[in-house]
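> call design_seq(struct)
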């Protein structure tokens, strides 16, 4: 089916478009972007008056729980949840069961993605076998099997030599090393309270230094501390090849607004105090922070209905990410809509060398439409994700995704999964 998306405000920071226009989609790709495009009756018209039309959101930090943990999330529920959030492309982290650490495991997952998923899914390979930090994974073989980056996300690679080897292999294979910066040998001791900021920023500093030793390419996940932001800002000034991301829960809320021992606020890295939140926002404003990514981490409810010490880490992020970003960054006056769209589309796509993130003629028609005037209250019971674990339940936000196209196919429309 071909579509004409008519009369929306089309924003594509990569190509410099910001205007009211129509978009013609034919055979899965963008055929034309222009004012008042005429079509015959065989084309389905989607009216987008007074709405935002943007590239499909690219989320490069997610946990789909497949293989092995499908009771938390699976490829179908994860895809549906992403579509409801306007997300058309994701990269999934390797902390599954088994870990995504070998060509065999990656090939098996890719086959399942082809059969079960309704969005574009890329795989991030483990750095070490089983994420144990004891032996390097087959990094070259994993890239040949489709890996777009290397990470031991969730368990920092604490061995400096393995990190150096990973940077060297990543350089040779033209992918980034993606690090969850945390001294988990120390953070594991913090059972009854959030781990302190220094356990993050000391590893941020270490990873920058190791990256510089071999002129590597480093991407830092979900940065959450003011010191970490300062280290990244300095590294960029010194021409380190470094990028970083932030999750919405680290700029949309602070520790002063929550019960920090509520299991639904338990996430790694923790929600920080307001001085860290303000430093994150400053880092977004000045370009120190490049990308918004959800760190989507769904859990079954029983794993959160425990004491803080026993509860699982993580927040379900797909379906609230756009609204939280728009409400707390754009409506709050911190950045422009163009800046936000860029952080959620072409910048993450370029970081992983993906084809996504743009609305250019000839590009795949991954497109998100959103009503910026729509105001609603976040209700996790309406999430299409299996995970309902969010600290934002009951929060009022603005900006609601209404339509999501993947490769020119309308997959989500006003609360309904299509096709």
């Amino acid at each position: 089916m071909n579509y004409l998306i008519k009369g929306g405000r089309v924003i594509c920071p990569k190509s410099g478009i910001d205007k009211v226009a129509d978009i013609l989609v034919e055979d899965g790709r963008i055929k034309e972007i222009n004012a008042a495009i005429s079509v015959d009756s065989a084309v389905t018209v989607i009216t987008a008056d007074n709405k935002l039309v943007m590239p499909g959101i690219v989320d490069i930090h997610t946990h789909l729980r497949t293989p092995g943990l499908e009771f938390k999330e699976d490829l179908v529920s994860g895809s549906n949840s992403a579509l409801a959030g306007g997300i058309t492309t994701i990269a999934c982290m390797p902390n599954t069961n088994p870990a995504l650490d070998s060509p065999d495991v990656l090939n098996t997952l890719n086959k399942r993605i082809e059969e079960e998923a309704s969005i574009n899914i890329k795989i991030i390979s483990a750095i070490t076998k089983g994420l144990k930090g004891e032996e390097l994974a087959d990094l070259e073989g994993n890239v040949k099997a489709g890996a777009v980056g290397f990470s031991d996300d969730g368990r920092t690679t604490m061995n400096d030599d393995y990190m150096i080897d990973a940077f060297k292999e990543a350089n040779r294979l033209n992918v980034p090393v993606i690090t969850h910066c945390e001294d988990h040998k120390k953070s594991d001791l913090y059972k009854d309270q959030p781990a302190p900021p220094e356990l993050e920023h000391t590893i941020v500093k270490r990873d920058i230094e190791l990256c510089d030793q071999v002129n590597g390419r480093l991407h830092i996940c979900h940065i959450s501390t003011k010191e970490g932001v300062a280290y990244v800002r300095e590294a960029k000034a010194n021409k380190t090849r470094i990028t970083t991301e932030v999750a919405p829960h680290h700029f949309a809320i602070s520790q002063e607004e929550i019960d920090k021992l509520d299991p639904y606020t338990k996430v790694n890295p923790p929600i920080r105090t307001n001085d860290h939140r303000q430093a994150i926002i400053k880092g977004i404003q000045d370009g120190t922070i490049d990308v918004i990514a959800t760190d989507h981490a769904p859990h079954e409810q029983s794993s959160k209905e425990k004491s803080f010490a026993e509860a699982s880490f993580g927040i379900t992020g797909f379906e609230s990410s756009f609204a939280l970003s728009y409400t707390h960054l754009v409506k709050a006056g911190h950045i422009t809509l163009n800046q936000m769209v860029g952080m959620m589309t072409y910048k993450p796509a370029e970081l992983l060398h993906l084809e996504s993130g743009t609305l250019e003629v000839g590009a795949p028609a991954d497109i998100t439409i959103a009503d910026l005037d729509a105001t609603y209250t976040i209700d996790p019971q309406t999430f299409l994700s299996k995970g309902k674990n969010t600290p934002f339940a009951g929060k009022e936000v603005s900006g609601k995704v209404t339509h999501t196209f993947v490769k020119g196919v309308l997959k989500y429309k006003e609360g309904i999964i299509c096709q």
